[in-house]
Write a structure and sequence with these properties.
Blueprint lengths: L7 H6 L4 H6 L41 H17 L2 H8 L1 H8 L3 H6 L3 H8 L4 H8 L1 H18 L5 H29 L4 H30 L2 H7 L1 H21 L17 H30 L4 H26 L5 H21 L6 H10 L2 H10 L5 H19 L1 H13 L3 H21 L6
Helix pairs in contact: 3-11, 3-13, 4-11, 4-14, 7-10, 7-19, 8-9, 8-19, 9-10, 9-13, 10-18, 10-19, 11-12, 11-15, 11-18, 14-15, 14-18, 14-19, 14-20, 14-21, 15-16, 15-17, 15-18, 16-17, 16-21, 20-21
Amino acid sequence: MSASPPPAAARASHPPAPVAAAENAPNTTPGLGTAAQPSPVQPKTAQPGPLPGNAAHVLAAPKTRTAVVFSVIALVLIGLNLRAGITGASALLHDLQLVLGYGPLVAAIIPSIPTLCFALAGAATSWLTGKVGVEKAILLSLALLAGGLLLRGIPATGMLVAGTVVGMSGLAVCNVAMPSFIREHFAARTSLMTAVYTVTMTTGGTLTSVAVVPLAQALGSPSAAVGSIGIMALAALLGFLPVALHAHRHSARPAGAGTLPWPLLRTRKGALLTAIFTLQALLAYALLSWFPYMLTTLGLSASESGLMFGVMQLVSVPAGVLLIALGSRPGMLRPAFYLVSTTMAAGVALLLFLPVSLSIIPAVFLGFGLGIFPLVMVMISRSGRDTAETTALSTLAQSTGYLLATAGPFGMGMLHSATGGWTLPLALLLVLAVVQMAVAHLLTSGKVK
């Protein structure tokens, strides 16, 4: 496969670079491919130049080795925070409700806030990165994340809700911007760095979910334990500061407001990426929000439930790496999606029928099923012809997907309150796992343009 030269208009705004040429090479092989191949999901037709409103982030000079090292460190620190604020609160939802005294409606709303913020705040990310650049947008998002998580440490229902809204809004922008950051800073290592980012994200979520219950017991306050997660976000903010300063000094200001994401929903590529992201997010956040609470109501102690929650997330770490490696092989992307969707369906079914004393079995299956996230993120990172279009696709998939995925945690909470059990919520999750497999089949058909 040889790289296609960029169009004349693109050359005017982007200095030629080997990695840029590799990223813009046409893809003829289904699958994730090598670093020189873009996503299997390609635009319908070749365009003669940049899309209208394209925000071109132009590097004035090659990155030094020090800058690359700082970028990798920042990537790891950010990844450690992108689930910690969610899983830490999830593991303590039962205790927080007992201590703060809020009712079932608030109990259903709180775990729904992350996905709702991901949808609403995430929708503005394409515009924000077009105005200030990817690095400054991420820096702002980390400041919001740290501030919001620290605010949750104040033991009041209003502070818990307000801190969650602020923190998750920052997390939303960071979530959407990271695929573009990876593409822009690690163009020749997109799959590798996406794997690093998602593995550290899962690791951070796992460690937090396991440690937060003993921390709450040691501090004598679930609010203090939840608030302490903000210290990790503050570390990520400080770790990313050198990257943002380097970008400010050595990069030209992006021109325009970025590629509009919403017209891409009318394309088969945009629609299917949005659909697969929606389904995996709905399943993931329904489980991440309620899994430990579910086990506690079924008879396990808070510590045992937190441990099972940690097992579920821990399994998703090697699962994501394995799925990326499998999906990168020629012709194996579709089997990778089949495998992860089948495992998710099996985990939900086992959770329905096995006694709670055997909850470690569905925890392992569900953890493997959660490994679909890095597979989807690699596809998004490698989609689009430039950073602006990648950001637009990421904005479209994540904002729309998370908005619809809000029905997962909220619906599970309300159905549990209405029925007094978990059978109906889990049965619906099982149906969604099957639908996810059908969408993955269409996405990997080789006909997506």
